[in-house]
Write a structure and sequence with these properties.
alpha+beta, TATA-Binding Protein, about 110 residues, five-stranded mixed sheet, about 40% strand
């Protein structure tokens, strides 16, 4: 399996796991948005909480030039360690939301 196809599969698998969680309050659903053609992957939240509309990204990841770019990570623990545990090398993950994006440092 080529690296892009492998990265796509892993990113989708990890996001799908997050999509199984039920928000602790409100009537909110979690929707996965996967675009393999453009290598764009997102987890969206949509619904209502305490009379207010809730909508927006929880996770947004793009793939480019063999790298996994974490464009937005709204998860409490962060998604990078889950991506690494699933088989993506830390040096292939870039925290693109930082002012000076850097590959993720290896943690033990």
């Amino acid at each position: 399996m080529d690296p892009t196809t492998q990265h796509q599969a892993i990113v989708k698998q990890v996001i799908q796991r997050y999509a199984q969680f039920k928000p602790s309050h409100g009537d909110i659903r979690l929707d996965t948005v996967f675009d393999d053609q453009q290598s764009r992957y997102a987890l969206m939240q949509v619904g209502w909480d305490r009379g207010r509309r809730i909508r927006g990204n929880l996770i947004y990841i793009t793939l480019d030039s063999g790298k996994v770019l974490v464009e937005y990570d709204g998860m409490e623990q962060g998604i990078t360690q889950d991506l690494i545990a699933a088989g993506i090398a830390s040096e292939q993950i870039v925290l693109a939301f930082l002012t000076d994006p850097q590959p993720v440092a290896q943690t033990s």
